[in-house]
Design a protein that fits this description.
globular, 1498 residues, five-stranded parallel beta sheet, 71 helices, 47% helix, single chain, Rossmann fold
Length: 1498
């Protein structure tokens, strides 16, 4: 122990500051800054950290360093976690060390402190995020705010620096005296050189002048601040530094006398798991974060949200190719010196009030190490274990809606330890332990139901995260998202979440995708439900968690249908349902038979929440333990189980500046809290909101104005807003033609001025009110606090849409449109909602009329309005919209009568048509705007004009389809043709009947509508058929009374007769009515994909309807439709509806009919319905019925493919042929199917039953069992098959097959590759003739370095030629993927850098790398002798230069030109283009100019 060591004994609990370092030299600097060293303390046995203990001032400090050789975010998180567990009283953290600076903003030897800038927190993880459309990457990593005590100290220290300078030079001098051995490297920078100091060429000279100008400008600012105060220039700092860097002192090196200004900067630090040593990448990263990055490093983001700390970095290099270690020691020392100085301003009493880090880590420990080196997905958002891009595509196609960000945000808001009472309750334990359970949790508003729901979701995810057989789905209902929470959206989301928890996307989901995706159609609700039933059947258990059912929309029966389908799913598959809601009678009645547990915030939970948040109150509270206890006890008593009220009450204490002020306010809270009834509690909440509004109104005028604008927008917005949208809204100033960034308010200010009523969801970026009741309160009181809200929002939206940037009008490409959306955050909201606000404002202004009279601005606005309704995966979705929309069209669309009136007075006629031939009247009628319809008709609008799209509907048909009765009346009175049929065959009556709009139906019938007008050929419905399919009994009765033909024929394609439609929907009362009216119960199914009534009812599992039809004489064995048809028994078996199956048996159903390529047993086995399988076998089903000739399965093959072990056992026991041959096309034997899915237990069962382990693969895309298991990376299955004698070198199928080794290498499954090589796999087996790869080529293409190494070590031929059709050598494959390390390994192994390209669209290695823009790979290949002018192949080829220009890769183009690339090389004869042609077609102007400068001729 050194001379400075202190000898008094201490315990682990005496240490409150944690100091984390990444490198030993950082630890050395930290230790040297200690005032005293302390003796070591014992560590827990599983703690691998080494701690240095000591003190600075009154703070006891623990220093820990990452293990030698380990860097990155994961290692930092592990060290911090162990430290917090060993020293439970640590409450604040310091992450201190070195980093790379972004020149010229920072210089070597400067210090950077993490600090929020604009929308960014102090630290962002640049390599953590999600892939977005168009190949873009959205970064999601961020660092939570450090403790208040550190932030307060930092603010004071910054002031002291500006006034008196820093003590850093003094501390460095002290270091020289106390530790002479460290003096040269750590305390002195005299001997070090900064590359930016060398200005010996024009580029450096310009850089030097830039640095000088930056420093000069900041000096001027500093002088101005002295006179005007810092606040006057708060928004004038550089983009990268919210608080301008401070020259803290002039450090004098006494050894050499050299003067050097060391500066302290406050701004953004970018953290990641990779070393950045590329200036281009560094600068691009800075640009992506708005030019705000000051420093890059590798550890801080590992502490995100887990370890509340300040990040301090000394700058040791510029993160470029000139990285060296010369400055590291000195940079570590200045960073440590700043940390020491900071601690002098942290009051020990303030630290006492902070929450221990250990408590924070308890909730997040399980998240550590979930990232992988290839993909870092946010595990709170994406539970999927799927690794294949195609699987993700399928799941995203189901629905884009993701509740993960909400789950993350809600869970973060949980005070650690709260809510445990729910998990510990006997009712919850009972619900969790048994299947087929429902736990209903009602609660008063603000009781904490949503946070508790997030606790339940997190608990389920933690408990079952390793079990792919457990399905978990959750829904957070939100009254502001009802447009995205339709019944279709909700069930698709449940299906997606259950499917993504499995090891691979279920086949039924892929089949649904294949059926619709190519045609860009969406599945029907019935299709989604069938697949959901199928997927649920594959799970051993399913948990569905639903929060805030009271916020689920009730329109069109959404909530009722959703609950009905959940309960039906529970009945079929024993799922568990957890639901929360307010105590609304309609909802409570649905759960009468369920277990019920009221949600109330326990007193202990409220107290724990308050204790965790009380540190944000004024400092005098932190110094008075008794007062803190009074606050906790007083609020806990007053809120009586309402968490929200506790949050609001605490916020109301923030501006109370004396103990008596606080005590008086607590007394008010107690008086408000008297009374236990819910109405009294809601009253207390209203009183609290009143007090919050009084506090807002009492602020300084600027703060009050900002708060009122924020509350106005959030309260009145038609959907939730992001922070950037709201910032742009508040920065939009009337009369201005563009947005000024200087008007953008700070997000933190927008929240803070609203007295706790507003919060930001970090993951989603949504800014919202804290609770549904806040919205209700503000909506109810808005006429008092802002009666002109709608007009103000209208003006803002229209002003925004009138900005100069929109004067170019319609964007002619998707890329330009997307860029416009991203560059103008409010564009989408304003375009889609300005008219909704204008309609409510009931007035028109000059700015609105000016906007509507501008053709270009109207077209720009209408493009955003209409394009968002299209499928955004469609490559030209933004172009698939009507053009030539006018201001009058928009007035009609939104129903803005005042604007329509003004425009009609100045424009020629009301019948303007857009390119879809839609008129203003058509839009007004479609959206139900009666006043505008009346105005347009009075102006002479053509009432019978038909649109060219949307089925060529007239205004009457559009209005009838929407159920707009008053508009229908107006149109009929104006002479609308009531029997006009659109091009899709639908009349107004049919449209109204389909929607169930009884009064509209009556009005149309009275006007002479033809009740038996024919249905369209393709999927059309007559009025009665449409009403019956929707279950609209009253409409059915009205139509029958009007003479509707109950047995009218169905449409030829996809049509249904009225009885068939009603039966398929399970509408019993309608079925009874139709039968009583003479409906033919045995009417045949249409020839294409239709059903008889009995088949339709059986397919939906509607038992009562099935019984009714059978009693009415339905033919139980009626033939199925010729395409995709099922007999009634097959349909019921496919859905797993046991009771329906039994009913059909009893009625004489033929069990072995083969129809629709499946027997009943095969479809039941395919769905995993064990009880149905048992019933069918007992009834005599043929267990070995042959599979269909195309894509068919025997029952055993179908069950094995789904991994249904019990069904497999049942079929084997019944005599199923374990070696039945696969179908001729793409089939599998049972063993091959089970191996492909990785179902080990099923594989074992089949092998025991005598399955042929070497059965031949199907001729097309088939696999042996071993090949199938290897392709999926299922190591245990591979081992089992090898032990059973599988041929490790079985040949690949003739078409695009793989040997087992090739398949494993293609997936990067190293352990499987090792196993197969040990078993004697031929490392050089020939690739398949079509799209094949050798094992080495497959691994190289995927970039799997370790697999490549293993294969080379096993003797793989590094120069095996590519197959004749579009193949790649290993080097070409790795180069095309940009896999630099693999390229290096292959070159070192002797790969031919100039191997010939494949004849069809082939590339040499250099051409492949150039095409992908992989600069470092290009450099490596050129250095290895790659021929820069290798000619392009005849068909679709490119020279390296042509390939690079086609992609717009300027740096690669320059590298190739320097290497001698022929700028005028000939294009390929088929689908070729010269370099200049490629650049021109791609719009790459810089590349084209560079080529011209290099002497291109064409």
């Amino acid at each position: 122990m050194d001379a400075q060591a202190a000898t008094e004994p201490r315990t682990h609990s005496d240490y409150t500051v944690g100091w984390v370092c990444a490198l030993p030299k950082e630890q050395t600097a930290a230790t040297a800054m200690l005032d005293h060293r302390h003796g070591d303390l014992p560590k827990p046995p599983n703690d691998h950290n080494t701690y240095t203990l000591g003190s600075i001032g009154n703070h006891n400090i623990v220093i820990a360093c990452l293990p030698k050789g380990e860097i990155g975010t994961n290692s930092a998180a592990t060290v911090a976690t162990s430290m917090a567990n060993a020293f439970p009283s640590i409450k604040i953290g310091l992450m201190v060390g070195i980093g790379g600076g972004i020149p010229p903003k920072v210089r070597l030897g400067d210090v950077v402190i993490s600090s929020p800038v604009g929308q960014y927190p102090g630290v962002v993880q640049w390599d953590l995020g999600k892939a977005k459309e168009g190949g873009k990457f959205e970064r999601t990593g961020s660092l939570n705010n450090p403790p208040a005590s550190l932030r307060t100290a930092l603010t004071k220290l910054e002031t002291e620096h500006e006034m008196s300078g820093s003590k850093i030079p003094q501390y460095l001098e002290d270091l020289k005296d106390k530790w002479p051995n460290l003096a040269l490297k750590y305390a002195s920078c005299n001997h070090l050189k900064d590359p930016l100091d060398v200005l010996d060429d024009p580029v450096r000279s310009r850089r030097g002048r830039n640095i000088f100008l930056v420093l000069l400008w900041e000096t001027i600012l500093a002088i101005v601040r002295v006179f005007l105060g810092c606040w006057a220039l708060a928004s004038m700092g550089s983009g990268a530094e919210q608080v301008a860097g401070t020259t803290v002192n002039t450090a004098v090196d006494r050894d050499g006398g050299k003067l050097r200004n060391m500066r302290v900067h406050y701004g953004l630090i970018a953290s990641g798991n990779q070393v950045i040593k590329d200036a281009t990448f560094r600068d691009r990263l800075d640009e992506e974060f708005g030019g705000h990055v000051l420093c890059v490093e590798m550890e801080a983001a590992g502490l995100m949200n887990n370890f509340p700390c300040i990040v301090i970095r000394g700058i040791c290099d510029y993160a470029d190719s000139h990285k060296n270690e010369d400055w590291q020691e000195h940079a570590a020392a200045v960073a440590a010196a700043f940390a020491k100085e900071l601690l002098q301003y942290v009051q020990p009493s303030a630290v006492v009030g902070e929450r221990p880090v250990k408590d924070i880590l308890e909730q997040t420990l399980k998240q550590v190490h979930k990232e992988t080196s290839a993909t870092r997905e946010d595990v709170t958002q994406i539970k999927s274990k799927l690794g294949k891009e195609e699987d993700k595509e399928v799941l995203d196609w189901l629905t884009k809606i993701d509740y993960g960000p909400q789950q993350s945000d809600y869970l973060k808001r949980r005070q650690p330890g709260t809510g445990q009472w729910l998990l510990d309750s006997e009712k919850f334990k009972g619900w969790l332990s048994a299947s087929n359970q429902t736990l209903f949790c009602p609660g008063i508003p603000g009781a904490g139901k949503t946070i508790l729901t997030s606790v339940v979701v997190d608990h389920l995810g933690s408990k079952f995260h390793n079990d792919p057989k457990i399905g978990i789905a959750y829904i957070y209902f939100n009254f502001q998202r009802q447009d995205k929470q339709t019944i279709d959206d909700l069930l698709a989301s449940v299906l997606k979440q259950i499917a993504e928890s499995q090891s691979s996307v279920p086949g039924s989901v892929k089949d649904l995708f294949d059926k619709h995706e190519a045609k860009r159609t969406r599945p029907s609700l019935d299709e989604t439900l069938r697949v959901l039933q199928s997927v649920a059947a594959t799970c051993s258990r399913v948990f569905i968690v639903v929060d805030a059912l009271d916020e689920c929309q009730t329109s069109e029966g959404c909530r009722k249908r959703f609950l009905s389908e959940l309960f039906n799913l529970q009945k079929m598959h024993g799922i568990n349902i957890f639901a929360t809601s307010r105590s609304i009678t309609e909802i409570v009645d649905c759960f009468k038979t369920s277990i019920s547990l009221e949600i109330r915030a326990s007193t202990a939970d409220v107290a724990q929440y308050l204790e965790g948040q009380i540190s944000q109150l004024p400092s005098f509270v932190q110094q008075d333990r008794r007062l803190r206890e009074e606050i906790t006890a007083g609020i806990s008593e007053a809120v009586d189980g309402m968490f929200l009220l506790a949050q609001i009450y605490l916020n109301l204490l923030y501006d109370k500046m004396t103990p008596n002020d606080i005590r008086s306010t607590l007394e008010v809270f107690r008086n408000q809290g008297q009374g236990r009834a819910e109405i009294q509690k809601v009253g207390a909440l209203t009183s609290a909101y009143n007090q919050a509004m009084m506090r807002i109104v009492g602020q300084m005028p600027g703060c009050k104005k900002l708060a009122m604008e924020v509350l106005t927008w959030i309260t009145c917005a038609k959907r939730q807003l992001t922070t950037s949208e709201l910032q742009h809204a508040l920065a939009t100033k009337p009369g201005k033609s563009e947005l000024d960034d200087g008007d953008l308010p700070c997000i933190g200010d927008m929240v803070s001025v609203c007295a706790g009523l507003v919060t930001v969801d970090e993951n989603s970026g949504i800014i919202r009110l804290v609770h549904y009741t806040t919205q209700e309160y503000l909506e109810g009181t808005q006429p008092r606090w802002n009666p002109n809200a709608e007009l103000a929002i209208t003006t803002t939206c229209v002003t925004y849409l009138s900005f100069t940037v929109f004067e170019t009008g319609f964007c002619t490409t998707n890329r330009k449109f997307e860029e416009r959306l991203q560059s103008n955050p409010l564009y989408d909201y304003a375009a889609r909602n300005w008219g909704n606000h204008a309609r409510k404002a009931a007035t028109s202004s000059k700015v609105v009329i000016d906007f509507l009279e501008s053709k270009a601005k109207v077209e720009a606005s209408s493009q955003a309005l209409m394009a968002t309704h299209w499928n955004r995966s469609y490559p030209i979705y933004s172009q698939h919209v009507p053009r030539n929309m006018t201001g009058l069209h928009l007035s009609g669309y939104f129903g803005v009568i005042e604007a329509a009136d003004e425009l009609l007075r100045s424009k020629p006629g009301p019948d303007l048509k857009d390119t879809y031939r839609r008129t203003p009247l058509w839009y007004a009628a479609q959206n139900g705007h009666e006043a505008v319809v009346k105005k347009l008709l009075a102006a002479g609008a053509d009432v019978n004009a038909a649109a060219a799209t949307s089925g060529s509907r007239t205004a009457l048909q559009a209005a009838a389809e929407g159920g707009h009765l008053e508009v229908v009346e107006k149109l009929l009175a104006a002479g609308a043709d009531v029997n006009n049929a659109s091009s899709n065959g639908r009349t107004a009556l049919q449209a109204a009947a389909k929607g169930g709009y009884l009064e509209v139906v009556e009005k149309l019938l009275a006007a002479g509508a033809d009740v038996n007008a024919a249905a369209a050929t393709y999927g059309g419905q007559m009025a009665l058929q449409a009403a019956a399919g929707g279950g609209h009994l009253k409409v059915v009765e009205k139509l029958l009374a009007a003479g509707a033909d109950v047995n009218a024929a169905a449409a030829t394609y996809g049509g249904q007769m009225a009885l068939q439609a009603a039966a398929g929907g399970g509408h019993l009362k309608v079925v009874e009515k139709l039968l009583a009216a003479g409906a033919d119960v045995n009417a045949a199914a249409a020839t294409v994909s239709s059903r008889t009534a009995l088949q339709a009812a059986a397919e939906g599992g509607h038992l009562e309807v099935v019984e009714k039809l059978l009693v009415a004489g339905a033919d139980v064995n009626a033939a199925a439709a010729t395409f995709d048809g099922r007999t009634a028994l097959q349909a019921a078996a496919e859905g797993g509806y046991l009771e329906v199956v039994e009913k059909l048996f009893a009625a004489g159903a033929d069990i072995n009919i083969t129809s629709g390529d499946r027997t009943a047993l095969q479809v039941a086995a395919e769905g995993g319905y064990l009880e149905v399988v048992e019933k069918l076998l007992v009834a005599g089903a043929d267990v070995n019925a042959a599979a269909a000739t195309s894509d068919g399965r025997t029952a055993l093959q179908a069950a094995a493919e789904g991994g249904y072990l019990e069904v497999v056992e049942k079929l084997l026991a019944a005599g199923a042929d374990v070696n039945a041959a696969a179908a001729t096309s793409d089939g599998r034997t049972a063993l091959q199917a089970a191996a492909e899915g990785g179902y080990l237990e099923v594989v074992e069962k089949l092998l025991v039953a005598g399955a042929d382990v070497n059965a031949a693969a199907a001729t097309v895309s088939g696999r042996t069992a071993l090949q199938a298991a290897a392709k999926g990376g299922y190591l245990e299955v591979v081992e089992k098959l090898l032990v059973a004698g599988a041929d490790v070198n079985a040949a690949a199928a003739t078409s695009d097959g793989r040997t087992a080794l090739q398949a494993a290498a293609e997936g990067g499954y190293l352990e499987v590759v090792k196993k197969l090589l040990v078993a004697g796999a031929d490392v050089n087996a020939a690739a398949a003739t079509s799209d094949g790869r050798t094992a080495l080529q497959a691994a190289a293409e995927g970039g799997y370095l370790e697999v490549v190494k293993k294969l080379l070590a096993a003797g793989a031929d590094v120069n095996a030629p590519a197959v004749t059709s579009s193949g790649r050598t290993a080097l070409q494959a790795a180069a095309g993927g940009g896999h630099l390390e693999v390229v290096k390994k292959l070159l070192a192994a002797g790969a031919d850098v100039n191997a010939a390209a494949a004849t069809v669209s082939g590339r040499t290695a250099l051409q492949a790398a150039a095409r992908g823009g992989h600069l470092e790979v290009v450099e490596k290949l050129l250095a290895a002798g790659a021929d820069v002018n290798a000619p392009a192949v005849t068909s679709g080829g490119r020279t390296a230069l042509q390939a690079a220009t086609e992609g717009g890769h300027l740096e690669v183009v320059e590298k190739l030109l320097v290497a001698g690339a022929d700028v005028n090389a000939a294009a390929a004869s088929i689908d070729g283009q010269t370099a200049l042609q490629a650049a021109a077609r791609g719009g790459h102007l810089e590349v084209a100019n560079r080529l011209k400068a290099a002497g291109t001729l064409r």
